[in-house]
Amino acid sequence: MSPHDVLVIVPAHNEVESLPATLAAIRRAAPAVDVLVVDDGSKDGTSEVARTHGVPVLSHAVNLGVGGALQSGFRYAVERGYAIGVQLDADGQHDPADLGALLAPLREGRCDVCIGSRYVARSGYRAPLARRLGMLLFSGVVRLALGRRISDTTSGYRAYSLAVMRVCEHDFPKDFPDAPLLISLARRGFRLQEVPVTMRERAAGQSFYTLGKKLYYPYKNLLASLMALLRRPA
């Protein structure tokens, strides 16, 4: 597998402040991998910043949410035959130095989805209380559904095989691709694995998760997790 079989997909919404440092960090850590920015309806010149750094951009006319942005990225990757797609946030929270650890299990055929976890090993990252409670809740939901523990169901730092991306380009949660997605993929027979990664605080800008979305998140995820359990695997 050559380095150019890997596409790093960076969903971005109004990330003009943090995107330059994120793209530079990817180049330093993995200069040979390809990068795609999906500008999810930004109003602040995010697309122009990405192009200035020599990165191709898919631009949404309106904001679809992180799930919609990733689905566009998966479609781009499948159409161009990439073997692996990596989901990496634009806000600087994910350290591109962990890309090698995230890719290794997929390159070695040990899994189909590799999840970068803050909790497999002690990283020093401490999420806000509300988020920690949500993580505990959805880790419990995934354990009940799959009979195994996933320590970081809300991690947005993941690598996917081509087979998984072929599914996700057609069937992917539009807003919160967390616990329901993991349940759905596992029930389709895809193998999940976690590796430890370093997670940092957002470098600049504002989170995609506004107050309204934070309040909506647990209800939507619980309902979507139930639907993923009831749905017959394709």
UniProtKB/TrEMBL annotation:
Pfam families: Glycos_transf_2
Keyword line: Transferase
Molecular function as annotated in GO: transferase activity
Domain Glycosyltransferase 2-like: 8-129
Protein name according to UniProt: Glycosyltransferase family 2 protein
Classification of source organism: Bacteria, Candidatus Eiseniibacteriota
